[in-house]
Amino acid sequence: xDVESVFSLVKVPSQSPLTIWRWSVKxxxxxxxxIKQYHPQGGLDKAAILVxxxxxxxxxxxxxxxxxxxxxxxxxxxxxxxxDKAVFFAGIFHDIGKLTVAPHLFDGREIxxxxxxxxxxxxxxxxxxLRDLYLMTALCAGLHHAMYQKGYGLTIADFPKGLSLRxxxxxxxxxTLVAICDDIDATLSRKTSLKDGTQAGLSLEGxxxxxxxxxxxxxxLALEVxxxxx
Length: 230
Ligand SMILES: [Fe+2]
Ligand SMILES: [Fe+2]
What we know:
By secondary structure, this protein is an all-alpha fold. The chain is 63% helix and 0% strand.
């Protein structure tokens, strides 16, 4: 079975017509084509399709979000002349750990503090799921909520020994870009109140400036790209 045939299986979940309507077929196609074009080593393309399929069964909102984050972060990476392939796959996998959390906690309802504590575990869960297979992607999944104050997930102490400073720098940069794109997408599609410690009532620009004070150029560029996509 070729990659496209495997991917097409996600089009037949038993979802409501509204759910199917909300599914972004355009992004699905774009993401599939990029997965194929990048043709990563080590079966990362198959793993990406598997994860998107799994998300599509019970966590379709997370799947849509992961696709948008991957596409947004990739575009920003291209403009920055970064490794857009690594960024794209980090975006696809960043919320893989949400597969370990009940889907109803992501459907837009208000959640309790206890439920939020459970949701926050998805970063570490994602790292654990990926670390033996794709270390860089795993670290980005574990770090995507750790790149701002009051964040959560992995710490520098969790980095495996022996990584070069250059590699660590690259992982932190990609994690920051994914974190910014994650925040932008979550904010633009958010229906519930903020729980990340930033001040309620701030504009998106204000919130991002507060969360990522050292990355204003990336924030500005990511906002520009995101708004152009709307
Ligand atoms: Fe996340
Ligand atoms: Fe996310």
